[in-house]
Write a structure and sequence with these properties.
Layout lengths: L14 H6 L10 E7 L6 E3 L7 E3 L1 H14 L3 E6 L9 H4 L4 H12 L4 E6 L12 E3 L2 E3 H17 L4 E4 L6 H11 L8 E6 L6 H7 L19 H13 L3 E5 L5 H11 L3 E5 L1 H12 L5 H15 L3 E4 L2 H8 L1
């Protein structure tokens, strides 16, 4: 059939009718809120490139987590800024490390929250890279030893989900083996399975105080031009025991996200990263975009492409807009 029998505008005639036939829905339960935590007390230091976001101390992070609960956001993911950095990332796996202490405090106050641990070393290494270095080479297998150690430390601290983001070969298998060996067989792994070496991470470097002191991360994060390689990366993480998968960044890689969900069928996340957020904020500040409409449209596109949940700096604002 074709026009005039088929008139697709018939189902667009009112807001209620459009809502009734809408294929993709978005709500607060789809979001994970990133939190950045640093030493101190009463700290709420604004991140200049990410309006409305802050570096928190543990006490204020607990309050921020409470805002997520009140808005209906079911999960937070923690990034730590240690008091001291070193070449062994010792703050990442210390029992009293910044995210370990934070996880205990948040779970004690808000036990209903799913608290995720980003497992990466860029914030903890004095050189700002995501692994052990020799000269200016990031050494994969030596990094896996620290990865396993850190995963166990995070599980012991009460994290509900371990989310490795370092893009080291074999990291999911190393974490699964370590968690199982330490009695954490039921702790799931959310693999940053396809994480690209992206220009869109810029503001995060300020937020996490983690710019590399030399070179860039292109020897371990993925080349933005590659799709088939992403499928190989994802398949390896699935084979190694990943329970959930993530594509990062989100909007520039919706094709990867769509195929990841179609091909593998696991619970799938996408990370709407700091640069994606900052662009929308900057455009809205200049009056070039309607921020609410643009933000919700971008989040809907990520969900439509296949994301079961979205890590986003818009989590609180979007949850309130959708309420």
């Amino acid at each position: 059939m074709a026009f005039p029998i088929d008139r697709l505008r018939r189902l667009r005639g009112s807001a209620a009718l459009r809502a009734l036939v809408r294929e993709t829905t978005l709500d607060a339960g789809d979001f994970v809120l990133p939190l950045f935590i640093r030493p101190g007390k009463g700290v709420r230091k604004e991140i200049s490139s990410m309006p409305g976001h802050f570096q928190y101390s543990v006490d204020t992070a607990v309050k921020a987590a409470g805002e997520a609960v009140a808005a209906g956001v079911p999960s937070v993911i923690l990034f730590g800024i240690p008091e001291k950095k070193d070449a062994k990332a010792s703050g990442a796996y210390a029992k009293d490390g910044i995210v370990q202490v934070s996880a205990r405090a948040i779970k004690d106050k808000h036990p209903q929250l799913v608290v995720m641990a980003d497992l990466c070393f860029c914030e903890y290494m004095d050189h700002g890279h995501c692994g052990v270095i020799r000269g200016e080479t990031i050494v994969n297998d030596a990094t896996l030893e620290l990865t396993a150690k850190t995963a166990v430390s995070q599980a012991e601290a009460g994290f509900d989900v371990i989310a490795p983001s370092g893009m080291m070969d074999g990291q999911v298998a190393a974490i699964r083996k370590a968690l199982d060996g330490a009695g954490f067989q039921m702790t799931p792994i959310l693999a940053y399975a396809a994480k690209y070496s992206s220009a869109f991470y810029g503001p995060f470097r300020e937020a996490a105080e983690s710019p590399p002191s030399f070179g860039d991360r292109s020897t371990y994060q993925m080349d933005p031009a590659n799709f088939d390689e992403a499928m190989r990366e994802i398949a390896l993480d699935v084979a190694e025991g990943a329970d959930m998968l993530m594509v990062k960044p989100a909007m520039p890689y919706l094709d990867v996200l769509r195929e990841c969900k179609r091909r593998f069928g696991l619970p799938t996340a996408a990370y709407q990263v700091s640069g994606e957020f900052a662009m929308l904020k900057a455009a809205a500040k200049n009056g070039w975009l309607d921020e609410k409409r643009a933000a919700l449209e971008s989040l809907t596109s990520i969900k439509r492409a296949g994301a079961d949940f979205i890590l986003t700096y818009y989590a609180l604002e979007a949850a309130r807009w959708l309420a």
